[in-house]
């Protein structure tokens, strides 16, 4: 039986962390990629969640782990770079 002070320090890891570990992605182990939820991406880029869903159809790469969808920072940067347009003018302006 564990002493109380050891049991209090041991906390179960979130299921997502274990799933990511199974894929070779170890949180906090110098992994350069951060993973975002669809809602976090929407807030980050000031767009709706519906827009992020549409972007998935247009090639935004996602990782699905046991039904949980995450978008890596590198996939998001790649998608933005691929769809970035410079000097886009508005008609009539």
Strand content: 5-15%
Write the CATH fold name of the domain at 31-82: Arc Repressor Mutant, subunit A
Backbone CA Rg: 19 Å
What strand line-up does the widest sheet have?
1-3-2
The structure class reads mainly alpha
Helix count, DSSP H or I runs of 4 or more residues? 5
Q: Helix content range of the residues, please?
A: 40-55%
Average pLDDT level: 74
Spell the H/E element sequence. Answer: HHEHHEEH
CATH class of the domain at 31-82: Mainly Alpha
Uncertain runs with pLDDT below 50, 5 residues or more? 1-8
Instruction: Compute the number of strand runs.
Output: 3
Biggest sheet overview? 3 strands, antiparallel
CATH architecture of the domain at 31-82: Orthogonal Bundle
The general outline is globular
Oligomer: single chain
**What gap, in angstroms, lies between the N and C termini?**
74 Å
Outline:
The chain has 93 residues and is mainly α.
What does this structure look like?
With 93 residues, the protein is mainly α. The chain has a domain at 31-82: Arc Repressor Mutant, subunit A (Orthogonal Bundle). It contains 5 helices and 3 strands. The protein has helices at 4-9, 15-22, 38-44, 49-57, 73-83, and strands at 35-36, 63-65, 68-72. The chain has a 3-stranded antiparallel beta sheet. It starts with a helix and ends in a 10-residue tail after the last helix.
